[in-house]
Design goal:
The complex is a heterotrimer. By secondary structure, chain B is α/β, with parallel strands linked by helices. Chain B has helices at residues 47-54, 81-87, 109-120, 129-138, 144-147, 157-169, 187-204, 215-221, 239-244, 249-257, and strands spanning 3-16, 19-32, 36-40, 62-71, 74-75, 92-95, 175-179, 207-212, 224-229, 232-238, 303-305, 311-313, 324-325. In chain B, helix 3 crosses helix 4 and helix 3 runs parallel beside helix 6 (157-169). The longest helix of chain B has 18 residues, at 187-204. Chain C has helices spanning 2-33, 38-43, 49-58, 65-78, 91-126, 131-145, 148-162, 178-204, 207-214, 219-257, 262-271, 275-303, 307-310. Classes of the chains: A mainly alpha, B alpha/beta, C mainly alpha. Chains A and C meet through helix 4, helix 5, helix 8 and helix 10 of A and helix 1, helix 6, helix 7, helix 10 and helix 11 of C.
């Protein structure tokens, strides 16, 4: 009996050590580490935005339109005289929230479908794969645009559209991983012990296919932000007067000749956000992928 | 009979962030014309590094620190890249261990062997294909006319290894280095490849350095055997002498562990390979040696030759020996 | 070996066909499956009752489903993509008028991207700690992080406003393509540089390089034959994966620069709720995309013989 407890403790200890190791590798990648804090900052901004914004982001005053940065308006005002800083702060939740929610939704559903497709195989596999092919036949941005056009404007349509257009990648990714993992002995062992298919899938296969999913997630967030802001820019995203960063650029673009700050500032922030997600993605990839880790060590 | 290769006091170190790995530390030996010298050692003994050095394939962080490698009057350690090109593949060739990763997947087997000719003669690769077919026949690849057009992934492990061997013998080199050529294959194929190499040695007249961890294999195929441990030579001599009367404790231990003499129990050697960044002082084997004396932890043993011409690096045999060799 | 290639091409083409058919069906059903009246959905929230009725009539939404499906399919096979609700002219006509602009933009952008990114990536891999490598990685990071429409606007600001060197919209002269193409190529360059560098690095560290050198081959031949050709595989992968991004990016870029291609046409048609035009464009783009993917896969099979064995099962 004591042996069993000791063994379990050892397993837990090993797991803790492994996580520590991953964290250390991640931390050693400076850009990734810094980016993580940047994202944290952005997350705080999105949650706290409306509460810390100095002025009302929706209140417009045409007499104060397009003012450059000043003491009263640290980031200037937009084309309708609204305070840019406040708009940026409140808009953070749109940009980040939409991206995070849609990618996580798409990734979850996609992973599940990939698991079923790869593990169950048979008719499930054929059907899911064919449907996936069709979805993949649409360029991602185009799919998102088309879906938004049909679902109408609004935050939720946007989230659904981006989620659906992100999903196929995960189905494919997970399915490939599952096909690889399923040949491993521990899966066979689990089944022989009498584990149900669902349990096997969740407890034994899923953890082992998660690594590439997590890496892909991070990169995907960046892409989702790009799509969300692009749709906002095109006027197909969140309807005005919501201060979504892409939409701010879209409505401000005619003034680029005279008052570029309306366009430059939100665009800069979008870039930083996407950059941060990409750096974190790199860091995660280094930490989780043994092949990449070996290559990096060699350098 | 002259020596094809003479290695003297060779030192090759790897410069890594963790420290300097002394992979080959003051190694000396020779290879005679037409003989098969077997080099035995565990992983980490330095044997693969040696193979790379002899073929000029060492790359940073590996660095040739000191020593000479004389090949037919030429010091290989002093050659430029350009000079190496006329030697590699033509006068010294190498057969690698894993046929799966050492063959380029996008070119046919025939093309890749023909490249050896192309490297040393004028003419395009395709013109050499008929020679390749002949070689394939020689290394006993079935249906050679068809196989020259096969891609590596269409060939079995044994066939792929024969392709690598074909590359090595194409230009009838003076010296062939075989680095664990059978380790990636199953036993039956191993036996075939060994037979093949034996036969080739006779017909080609080349010298072969056969590197492996499997001493039993060497007992079959080699003329002389050299045993390496942790970057150093521990014993070098005639095959029969080494196998039947091993002197060095390490050699003895290996032979016992493979139960070569069919004794009752398998014995493992206790302990593990030392770190090559910080090797033990004195004789590198002393922490695991059942016969270790005080001297062994302080002083590195010199090479002692005995009447049979075998050299052993062990303090046990000093004093009564016939004179020592440094290094 | 030749027969293998043909088998692959045949089955792969078959798969593309099935996929395209699936996409068509998807499009057909998606409007009719969503809750609510399809005609109202298409007309939009601001439409009046008569607009809705008109749309219902025009699109034949009041006819039984199988009749609709039938005319839909036969229409497409005939090349009839319907009549634009806004312009009143055949959709195909509108598309074909503007298609050359998009293709020109895409080709120029992709050409610029490949011409810059691939050599940069190769050099960065060969000389890891040089200025070039630094440049390459910076370009890689920026290209993948800066939103394409913002880059476009910034380029307009720099070149059209401050320097007054290049035109910022429209397509009257050859000069007009420069900024949009640059913008779009920047979008592509980021990833392409990174992947090229990674692919070459991977190829450089592979074992068969040692074999090639051990044969006595001169370094330049080793490089070209054994390093670059193997690197082509991942590079081709990225280029094909980026085709979607290319098309999507083109849509955005055309809007920024008022480039008269089908991308901006699509966005316009969505604004005007010209469902027929939008669908026609999307269908054409998807079909095009599927064909492009097919061609890429075939190119793959030509370069990497291992692919021909896989056929279409693993996909």
């Amino acid at each position: 009996m004591e042996d069993k407890v000791a063994l379990l403790d050892k397993v837990k200890e090993a797991r803790r050590r492994r996580i520590r190791e991953l964290w250390d590798v991640f931390r050693s990648n400076k850009p990734a580490y810094i980016s993580m804090y940047v994202l944290l900052l952005l997350a705080i901004a999105s949650l706290a935005g409306p509460y810390i914004a100095p002025l009302d982001p929706y209140e417009f005053d045409l007499s104060k339109a397009r003012l450059p940065p000043s003491l009263e308006h640290p980031l200037g005002t937009d084309e309708l005289g609204r305070d840019m800083l406040s708009r940026i702060l409140v808009g953070a939740r749109y940009t980040l929230g939409i991206a995070v929610l849609s990618v996580i939704t798409g990734a979850s559903i996609g992973t599940l479908l990939g698991l079923i497709s790869g593990y169950r195989g048979g008719l499930w596999d054929v059907v899911i794969q064919r449907v996936n092919d069709v979805l993949l036949a649409f360029p991602t941005i185009l799919l998102a645009i088309a879906l938004v056009a049909f679902l109408g404007q609004g935050v939720y349509s946007l989230i659904i559209a981006i989620a659906v257009s992100s999903m196929p990648v995960y189905v494919r990714l997970v399915r490939a991983s599952v096909l690889q993992v399923v040949t491993e002995d521990y899966v066979l062992a689990a089944r022989m012990l009498g584990l149900s298919e669902w349990s096997t899938m969740m407890r034994h296969i899923l953890p082992n296919v998660l690594a590439p999913v997590v890496v892909q997630l991070s990169y995907h967030m960046g892409l989702a932000i790009l799509i969300a802001s692009a749709l906002g820019f095109l006027g197909l995203g969140v309807p005005p007067p919501a201060p979504e960063w892409g939409a701010m650029i879209g409505s401000g673009k005619v003034y680029i000749f005279s008052n570029p700050h309306i366009v430059v500032i939100p665009g800069f922030l979008i870039s930083i956000t996407i950059l941060a997600f990409n750096m974190v993605g790199d860091g995660l990839r280094e930490a989780l992928d043994p092949k990449v880790r070996a290559l990096v060590r060699r350098l | 009979m002259s020596d094809v290769l003479t290695v003297k006091n060779l030192k090759i170190y790897y410069e890594l962030p963790q420290g300097v790995v002394r992979a080959v530390d003051d190694v000396s030996f020779n290879v005679r014309e037409g003989e098969i010298l077997g080099i035995a050692g565990e992983s980490g003994s330095g044997k693969s590094t040696l193979a790379l050095a002899i073929t000029g394939l060492l790359r940073p962080p590996a660095r040739l620190v000191s020593g000479t490698i004389m090949f037919k009057g030429v010091d290989l350690t002093k050659l430029s890249e350009r000079e190496w090109r006329s030697i590699r593949g033509r006068r010294i060739s190498i057969v690698f261990q894993d046929p799966n990763t050492y063959l380029n997947p996008v070119y046919t087997a025939g093309f890749q062997v023909a490249e050896v000719f192309e490297a040393h003669r004028s003419g395009i690769t395709a013109s050499f294909l008929r020679y390749v077919i002949e070689i394939f026949r020689r290394v006993r690849i079935a249906d050679p006319e068809r196989r020259v057009h096969s891609y590596p992934h269409q060939l079995s492990g044994g066939m792929k290894q024969r392709v690598l061997i074909s590359m090595a013998i194409a230009e009838k080199p003076d010296l062939i280095v075989a680095d664990e050529p059978t380790s990636a294959l199953d036993v039956t194929i191993q036996a075939e490849i060994i037979d093949l190499m034996n036969e080739l040695r006779k017909s080609l007249g080349s010298s072969i350095i056969f590197i492996t961890h499997d001493l039993a294999l060497l007992a079959e195929i080699s003329d002389r055997i050299m045993v390496m441990y942790a970057g150093k030579v521990v014993e070098l001599g005639d095959k029969n002498t080494i196998i039947s009367e091993p002197k060095h404790p390490y050699t003895k231990a290996i032979l016992e562990s493979i139960n070569y003499e069919r004794k009752s129990r398998l014995k493992a050697i206790r302990g593990s390979i030392p770190s090559l960044i910080n090797p033990p002082r004195g004789c590198r084997f002393h922490p695991r040696c059942p016969f270790a004396m005080e001297r062994c932890s302080v002083e590195e043993p010199r090479g002692i030759i005995d009447v049979k011409g075998r050299i052993v690096y062990c303090h046990l045999y000093e004093g009564g020996g016939d004179g020592g060799i440094k290094g | 070996m030749a027969s293998n290639l043909f088998t692959y091409v045949f089955f792969r083409s078959l798969q593309s066909f099935v996929t395209f058919f699936g996409a068509l069906l998807l499009f057909f059903f998606i409007v009719r499956i969503l809750p609510g009246d399809p005609a109202r959905l298409l007309a939009g929230p601001e439409a009046s009752e008569e607009d809705v009725a008109r749309i219902r009539e025009l699109l034949g939404l009041n006819k039984p489903i199988y009749e609709q499906l039938f005319s839909y399919i036969t229409g497409i096979l005939r090349g009839d993509l319907g009549v634009s609700l806004k312009y009143g002219t055949p959709v195909l006509h509108e598309i074909l008028a503007r298609l050359p602009y998009t293709i020109a933009l895409a080709l120029v952008a992709e050409a610029i991207a490949i011409a810059i990114a691939v050599p940069l990536g190769v050099l960065a891999a060969l000389k890891p700690r040089s200025v070039i490598a630094y440049l390459a990685s910076t370009l890689g990071i920026l290209g993948a992080s800066l939103p394409v429409f913002w880059v476009g606007l910034m380029l307009i600001f720099i070149f059209a406003v401050e320097l007054r060197v290049l035109p910022s919209s429209g397509a009257e002269s050859p000069k007009h393509i420069i900024l949009p193409a640059l913008t779009l190529s920047f979008f592509l360059m980021g990833n392409l540089t990174r992947i090229t560098r990674a692919a070459v690095l991977e190829a450089l560290s592979s074992n068969h390089i040692l074999t090639a050198i051990a044969k006595g081959l001169p370094l330049n031949k080793v490089l070209v034959r054994h390093v670059l050709r193997i690197s082509l595989i991942p590079i081709l992968t990225v280029i094909s994966l980026q085709l979607g991004a290319l098309l999507g990016g083109a849509i955005i870029t055309e809007t920024v620069f008022a480039w008269p291609g089908i991308g901006s046409l699509l966005v316009d048609s969505l604004f005007f709720r010209d469902y027929v035009l939008a669908q026609g464009i999307i269908m054409l783009v998807v079909g095009f995309f599927i064909v492009l993917n097919l061609l890429t896969d075939i190119a793959y099979a030509l370069v990497d013989p291992r692919v021909r064995e896989i056929l279409w099962r693993i996909r």
